[in-house]
Design the sequence.
């Protein structure tokens, strides 16, 4: 830890500072999770993190941005990202806006000397992601991607069991991410339904699932048999601003075509020889946020369901049984990671954003604590896999007759 005793740190590629000023661009659902994450980051884990100053929330919707700044204790609200880039009191920024806007904003922030945490997927295209990786290398700032499920203590514990060889080599990853936010044909049109094949459910939630599979099983070698399906062809145009996945906005009589997929399925082969089966949907009725997987290995297995985030199941040849494990102080991200730091005291998905913010800030400050966030190279890798799924879906596998 550089200079922690004096309350100062050597920020990557910059002068010594005694505090880190943070901002969030995007005041919607995920943006607020980032805002709260920064607010809580210095309240958990060990001492030594420099002072975190909650400086600004930016959103084109002035009312939404001002409300988020007030709720989470930020000093001010802005209506454009350029104000964040130009602000001398801001050092680190989360970018939590529509995917199509990521490249322009991230490159502008890096050029202005800011550290950047960009929500997944990193960019709308592989080409954009490659340009962003180059911009990050040139800027010499911390540039991270928000794969928040990497911060799950349960997922971290499973990963350790795989890496140690306790479960043997991975054989089969079977994962799903099912949501119902797109079930209603009258859910308002938004940027999530625009952009062409691969930019719908696959990019929105499938990016998390693909990243988690590689996080546990190593690199994917090839993708096969993809099917992308759109079941709701058009949606009503809102008269106001549709925020996150929520409705509640007045709708016009005009409808626009949905340009991307509601569902995606595919298989994959990992470099290790393991196979993967994947299912993604935003029209899974009654499942607002159902992510889970089963991992079968040569000497055991493990499973995780985000509806029970503080636990996982595991079996191995040593114990000979299939048991439920509650994540406690001996697991990653939990020792010191809760206000009530005690075995059996549960955590949830919102805590993942706190752990992510903490890891991002620690890397900026040079603190040796939590594992680092995924970098832009990992974000590019994720985009390349999404692109491979789309290309697989374009292959003609129809049967004769």
Sequence:
């Amino acid at each position: 830890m550089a200079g922690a005793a004096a309350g100062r740190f050597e920020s990557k590629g910059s002068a010594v500072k005694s505090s880190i000023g943070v901002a969030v661009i995007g005041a919607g659902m995920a943006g607020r999770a980032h805002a709260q994450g920064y607010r809580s980051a210095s309240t958990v884990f060990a001492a030594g993190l420099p002072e975190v100053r909650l400086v600004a929330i930016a959103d084109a919707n002035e009312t939404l941005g001002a409300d988020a700044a007030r709720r989470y204790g930020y000093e001010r609200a802005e209506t454009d990202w350029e104000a964040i880039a130009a602000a001398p009191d801001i050092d680190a920024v989360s970018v939590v806006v529509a995917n199509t806007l990521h490249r322009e904003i991230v490159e502008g922030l890096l050029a202005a000397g800011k550290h950047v945490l960009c929500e997944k997927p990193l960019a709308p295209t592989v080409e954009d992601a490659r340009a962003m990786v180059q911009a990050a290398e040139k800027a010499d700032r911390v540039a991270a991607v928000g794969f928040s499920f990497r911060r799950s203590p349960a997922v971290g514990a499973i990963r350790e069991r795989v890496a140690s060889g306790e479960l043997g080599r991975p054989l089969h990853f079977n994962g799903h991410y099912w949501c119902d936010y797109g079930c209603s044909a009258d859910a308002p049109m938004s940027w999530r339904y625009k952009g062409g094949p691969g930019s719908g459910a696959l990019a929105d939630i499938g990016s998390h699932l693909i990243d988690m599979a590689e996080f546990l099983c190593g690199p994917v070698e090839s993708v096969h048999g993809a099917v992308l399906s759109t079941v709701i062809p058009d949606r009503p145009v809102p008269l106001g601003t549709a925020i996150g996945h929520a409705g509640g906005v007045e709708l016009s009589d005009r409808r626009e075509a949905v340009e991307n997929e509601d569902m995606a399925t595919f298989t994959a082969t990992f470099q290790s020889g393991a196979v993967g089966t994947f299912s993604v949907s935003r029209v899974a009725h009654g499942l607002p946020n159902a992510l889970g997987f089963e991992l079968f290995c040569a000497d055991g297995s493990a499973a995780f369901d985000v509806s029970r985030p503080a636990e996982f199941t595991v079996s191995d040849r040593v114990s000979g049984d299939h048991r439920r494990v509650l994540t406690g102080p001996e697991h990653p991200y939990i020792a010191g990671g809760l206000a009530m730091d005690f075995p059996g005291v549960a955590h949830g998905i919102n805590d993942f954003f706190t752990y992510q913010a903490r890891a991002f800030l620690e890397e900026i400050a040079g603190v040796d604590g939590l594992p680092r966030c995924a970098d832009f190279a990992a974000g590019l890798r994720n985009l390349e896999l999404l692109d491979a799924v789309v290309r697989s879906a374009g292959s003609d596998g129809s049967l004769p007759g």
User: Anything to note?
Assistant: The domain at 4-149 is CATH 3.40.50.720 (Rossmann fold). The chain has two domains: 4-149, 153-308+310-345. The two ends are 67 Å apart (CA to CA).
